[in-house]
Design goal:
The protein is an alpha+beta fold and 494 residues long. It has 24 helices and eleven strands. The protein folds into three domains: 77 residues, DNA Methylphosphotriester Repair Domain, CATH 3.40.10.10; 105 residues, Arc Repressor Mutant, subunit A (Orthogonal Bundle); 165 residues, DNA-3-methyladenine glycosylase AlkA, N-terminal domain (TATA-Binding Protein), CATH 3.30.310. The strands form three sheets. The chain has a five-stranded antiparallel β-sheet with strand order 5-9-8-7-6, covered by helices on one side. The protein has a four-stranded mixed β-sheet with strand order 3-1-2-4. The protein is globular, with a radius of gyration of 23 Å.
Length: 494
């Protein structure tokens, strides 16, 4: 295979060592094509290891598929954690991958996607080839067929529903693509399946991650900031209501540490948006992160006594808690200005009770929340005198809601563009904007330099107080992982 098919521009011996070790930290980071069988596998595949001269390495599953390799039915590449969103540190590729995961190419073509990103389609294809080894369309097609395979394995959905839920426009196109990829029809594949979970009460998916994963911290973070009535932590599981394209539903997420995955149970009547729901769950729990690469990046300066070196050892597997809905977390960020976490949670609960939508069936069930978070259109009409918060803060929520409803604020925009749009609203400063892009967009390099807690922790650990400018300068060595540095520092404060 050509050299550009490799994940790195480094010696292939690095990838070969990772393959031979079957180290789960590299799961989804690259894929192994076996020339003698025409199959591609995850680096953790349990089958007998093929000889080194018979394998080649790919940056992504889509790259392997583009070269004609079929997915392995033993290690199931569709279940891998996925290529890290910041692959190649290309901001354009990262944004494109997020838009594709949200279905950007299910109805539009590459030209439309490229225009949303502010680049030409040819340039976008060149970036994808450089960083992922496949075109945007190939990535989207692989995403669809992989998810269809998971639905066939883990649900009893009709094939027409499988096709629609996976983003295909017709059953004929779905059947043809599936047969081309797996060399079997979907019906034959289902007849051979081994159903892992009973699904009478919903749809269950196991979502893998690269270990280590600090589940306790993630769950605690979400629990403290859970919007009362909308989301909650119940029996060591995260539960929340949602509405997507007018269809209400519930998700419940539990941790399976022995399998390095999260079990996500989705209750929804119409399965057409299952793929979007699964992608959002991955975003909430930062499942595509590579803790090994992040740790290396944060400690690259190798300075004696570097505080992050100590914190990474102390808190392995720290992730950035994301969110289900970008607008919801943006409101939370404004509410949380200059008050405690508990105080912000109380105010969010009042906001939901005043403007949220009640779910009758859920309100009678103690095992799940009973509200849906209000839409931007609802909060655009809120009465700033009814909220128990400073009027300036309430006005900022209302103005931001209007901007989101009007399309003036788009959470899929470039991070810097989004920060500027947010800060143009009176009452939203740099701290709030950085917090929003960190949690709503998963921006790995967002940094809240003005956060008083971070400043106190750095001063305590370094033995001297730093000015805002000095802290920003010190954080330059942590790029492009400053958001993870902030999470580690917050943990130290806790």
């Amino acid at each position: 295979m050509a050299q550009q098919s490799l994940k790195y521009n480094a010696d292939t011996s690095i990838l070969e060592k990772a393959r031979l070790s079957r180290d789960p930290r590299f799961d989804g980071y690259f894929f192994v094509g076996v020339k003698t069988t025409g199959i591609y596998c995850r680096p953790i595949c349990p089958v007998k290891l093929p000889k080194s001269e018979n394998v080649t390495f790919f940056k992504s599953a889509a790259a392997a598929a583009s070269e004609g390799f079929r997915p392995c039915l033993r290690c199931r590449p569709e279940a891998s954690p996925g290529t890290p969103a910041w692959s190649g540190t290309s901001a354009t590729v990262s944004r494109a991958m997020r838009l594709i995961s949200e279905g950007a190419l299910d109805g539009d073509d590459v030209d439309v996607l490229a225009s949303r990103l502010g680049v030409g389609s040819r340039h976008l294809c060149r970036l994808f080839d450089r960083h992922l080894g496949a075109s945007p369309l190939a990535v989207a097609q692989t995403r669809r067929v992989h998810f269809a395979k998971r639905l066939i394995d883990n649900t009893n959905l009709k094939m027409s529903d499988v096709a629609l839920s996976s983003g295909y426009k017709s059953v004929r196109r779905f059947n043809a693509h599936f047969k081309a990829v797996y060399d079997q029809t979907p019906s034959i594949m289902r007849s051979k399946r081994n159903i892992e979970t009973g699904l009478l009460a919903g749809f269950t998916f196991k979502l893998n991650y690269r270990p280590p994963y600090d589940w306790e911290h993630m769950l605690r973070f979400l629990e403290l900031r859970a919007v009362p009535g909308v989301e909650a932590v119940i029996n060591n599981a995260y539960v929340r209501n949602f509405i997507l394209d007018g269809e209400p539903g519930v998700i419940r997420i539990e941790h399976l540490p022995a399998e390095n995955c999260l079990a996500s149970k989705i209750e929804i009547n119409d399965p057409a948006r299952l793929l979007t729901i699964v992608e959002r769950i991955k975003r909430i729990f930062d499942l595509t992160a590579d803790p090994h690469e992040i740790s290396q990046g944060l400690t690259a300066s190798d300075q004696p006594g570097d505080i992050l070196q100590r914190l990474i050892v102390r808190f392995p597997g720290t992730r950035i808690p994301g969110c289900w809905d970008s607008f919801e977390v943006a409101v939370r960020a404004i509410v949380g200005q200059q008050i405690s976490v508990a105080g912000a949670t109380t105010v969010m609960g009042r906001l939901v009770r005043q403007y949220g939508v009640t779910i009758p069936a859920a309100s009678k069930c103690k095992s799940r929340p009973g509200y849906l978070f209000p839409a931007p259109e609802e909060l655009a009409r809120l009465d700033i005198n009814r909220l128990s918060m400073p009027r300036g803060r309430a006005r900022a929520i209302k103005d931001m809601a209007r901007a989101v409803a009007a399309g003036d604020i788009d959470f899929t925009d470039d991070f810097e563009m989004l920060i500027r749009a947010l800060k143009s609203i009176k009452g939203i400063g740099d701290w709030t904007a950085q917090y929003i892009v960190m949690r709503a967009c998963g921006a790995p390099d967002a940094f809240l330099a003005g956060d008083l807690v971070l400043q106190k922790v750095v001063a305590r650990e370094m033995g001297k107080k730093l000015s805002l400018r000095e802290l920003e300068q010190a954080a330059e060595q942590w790029r492009p992982w400053r958001a993870y540095a902030a999470m580690l520092l917050w943990r130290c404060a806790g």
